Amino acid sequence: MVTTILTHEVKNYDTWRIAFDSDASNRAKMGVNITGVFQSAENPNLITVIGEVSSMEAIKEFMGNPELKAAMEKGGVIGMPDMKILTRCN
Question: Which of 7, 30, 46, 82 lies 20 to 30 A from 62 at CA?
Answer without folding.
Answer: 46
